[in-house]
Amino acid sequence: MAPSLLQPQGHLSPAETLKLAQQAPDILRRNPKAISASPLLSLFSAPETADLWTIYENLLLSCLRTGDDESAHHCLERLVLRFGDNNERLMAFKGLVKEAEASNHNELLAVLKEYEDILEDNQANIPIAKRRVALFRSMGKTPEAITALIGLLEFSPTDAEAWSELADLYLSQGLYSQAIHALEEVLVVTPNAWNMHARLGEVSLMAANVSTEGFPQKHLAESLKRFCRSIELCEDYLRGYYGLKKVTDKLLSEPVKLKKQTEGEGFSLPQKETIEKLNQAATKKLAEIVRRHGAQEPLWQGYNADEIVAAKALLDSSASNVVR
Amino acid sequence: MVQIPVQTLHRDPQLFYWILIPITVVMVLTGVLRHYASVLMATAPKKQDVKAMREQRFLGRGVTLRTNHHVLSQKAFDVRRETLTAGYESGAYLKEPEKKGQPPANPLSDPSAMDGMMGMMKNNMAMIIPNTLIMSWINAFFSGYVIMKLPFPITIKFKSMLQAGVQTKDMDPRWMSSISWYFLCIFGLQFVYVFLLGSDNAASQVAQQMQQQQMPNPMGGPGQDPDKQFKAEAENLAVVEHYSVLDDVEERLLAGIKS
């Protein structure tokens, strides 16, 4: 899929971002600086569309990523001209530009101070509150970021974005059960997000790997089920199959002592035959994905190249195990 | 067969230019004016403060938890349910916890609710005043004229629509009076406004009336006690019979893959 300025930019590679950012002068030239609200002028000039502002926003982001500060400023100027100085979203963008241009620690601290002033004024300014968390994070102050994020979630508990950021922060600190809790909150808000299901499976698997004492099998069972659910929601989802294979491999290679579980204590593991079948299915599907992606089949090119490489490595390692 | 003689009325052709066109122009201009007046008078949506947002979102959280409880395991759901229910019942999520249990304030005395009502009043005024003015203007100057003849035949039922203000029983319904032209303009100029002002204009009253009917009561209904809403939500949560979508997911998956 070709990158488009109308879609969120988070997942784009640097090269794709550069390609988008290079359109900036062209787009800025093609569109008028200010859209007139007068009825006569609007008859003669291009109509104002909502798309245009999305394009400006995304252009702003990709220009900042590629260091084209001048175009970024132009985009910001036009957005401010249209939506005014006090728009919460634009305040966050302004802060973002300042963060990007800050060259040393003190300037970042100044931006942070600014955010805090704004928040003091209006605590409910969610975009700025999120920028503050992001700034803490990029300055390496994870504990502060977590505290700030919890403060945000305290009054806005249905914010999936904030919950998933919190999960990520907890995970970076190795706090698995907190991360799992946060991810579950994300799922409560977006129950059909297969990537979040798979992510929760991954985090549970990590938790099972580190939990030395006690019950890794609870986490393993949860992880297995999460991966299954993610595949159920999105067949051909590579990460889901990858995780499923990982977790079933682990379950088959080191059979956990099947303790009798007390009722209501999470999920119980399925039968051994079922696990074997799941493992086979995952292996088969992964092999198919790798093969068809490798054969350049047109409908199978949407996968991330790194993920394909990882899947291939996983398949190879398990194949060598079988030979041995 | 007897051909019905075609009615002919001798009227000054100037009538056409001095009535039809002025009415149309005035109608279009009022529409444009009304649009800009309502843009000017529009009150900016009021910013929610933290407490109000918290109250509303915690209520929303209860609803999402209740509808999406199946993504969680039994234990995770129970923990969340307990926390939320406790919070709901103790009033911890209320905007003003100390006011818990008191009857809701009269919405008329609440300044924030007043704002919303003022906005509605302004909108209504912006519609009523120009309409009254124009209507009386047309009545004063143009009533009783027949201004044009439609180029196509039309049945007798349209008589009341097209010949308002002209009480002549036997006249062919194809003749049209000025008041009727005014009414046609009210309902028919919407596309002109869309062309001039963009699709979300405030010029056409038909669109505005529709919008008002559709608009749900703003801010979740003033006068509704959030404490009662919380209690109700806590009850709703308590009766949820939990199941997890993860139960037997592997069997479902295997069956799905095979088929």
From TrEMBL, chain A:
SMART domains linked to this entry: TPR
PROSITE patterns documented for this protein: TPR (PS50005)
Compartments, as annotated in UniProt: Endoplasmic reticulum membrane
Domain of life: Eukaryota
One Pfam family from the record: TPR_EMC2
TPR repeat locations: 160-193
GO cellular component: EMC complex
Topology of the protein relative to the lipid bilayer: Peripheral membrane protein
Location, primary (coarse class): endoplasmic reticulum
UniProt keywords, alphabetically: Endoplasmic reticulum, Membrane, Repeat, TPR repeat
InterPro entries: EMC2-like, TPR-like_helical_dom_sf, TPR_EMC2, TPR_rpt
Domain EMC2 TPR-like residue range list: 108-207
Function per UniProt: Part of the endoplasmic reticulum membrane protein complex (EMC) that enables the energy-independent insertion into endoplasmic reticulum membranes of newly synthesized membrane proteins.
Oligomer status and interactors: Component of the ER membrane protein complex (EMC).
Entry similarity comment: Belongs to the EMC2 family.
The protein, known as: ER membrane protein complex subunit 2
Annotated source species: Cylindrodendrum hubeiense
UniProtKB/TrEMBL annotation, chain B:
GO cellular component: EMC complex
Record localization: Membrane
Chief location of this protein within or outside the cell: membrane
Topology versus the membrane: Multi-pass membrane protein
InterPro entries with a match to the protein in the record: EMC3, EMC3/TMCO1
GO BP of this protein: protein folding in endoplasmic reticulum
Sequence intervals crossing the membrane: 15-37, 127-148, 179-198
Keyword Chloroplast in annotation: no
UniProt keywords, alphabetically: Membrane, Transmembrane, Transmembrane helix
Its job: The EMC seems to be required for efficient folding of proteins in the endoplasmic reticulum (ER).
Annotated family: Belongs to the EMC3 family.
Official protein name in the record: ER membrane protein complex subunit 3
Organism name: Cylindrodendrum hubeiense
